[in-house]
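Worked example
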Amino acid sequence: MSPLPRPRNWVLVAMLVALVALDAGLAHAQVTTMRAAIATRLLPRGTVLTSDDIVYRDTTVRGPIDTNRVAPGWVTRRLIGAGEVLRAPAVERPAMVSANEPVSVEWADRNVLLTIRGIVTRNAALGERVTVRTALGHRIDATVIAPGRVRID
């Protein structure tokens, strides 16, 4: 019995084997039924969501589960079709601070509260980390705690 002929292009064979393995892995992707926010109409980019734009219903979701709870006030980052599940990164929490906006930078330790002024370098929502430039040119990492206020942890 003669040995099997060697393929001329072993790279193509390796790619085919990798694609078959990837497809087998995707067949076992997590499918979950969960309560999700669904768009009630076509939503252009930059739309601030209202209660009329969202309906919550049980939906089958394939892939990783988004734990964010989309609510009125969130903003669309791209065009969203009617009936589409609303989840990050297509929608995001509203920004509490905007790029190049002055903010109060707070630092607290027991009974001492220190406050300075700074400029945030990017838009950020409540609870997000953001970099702040001080008047002296120092960069500080802080957490957004309210509109126009950040805290050094």
In short: The longest strand covers residues 31-39. The radius of gyration is 24 Å.
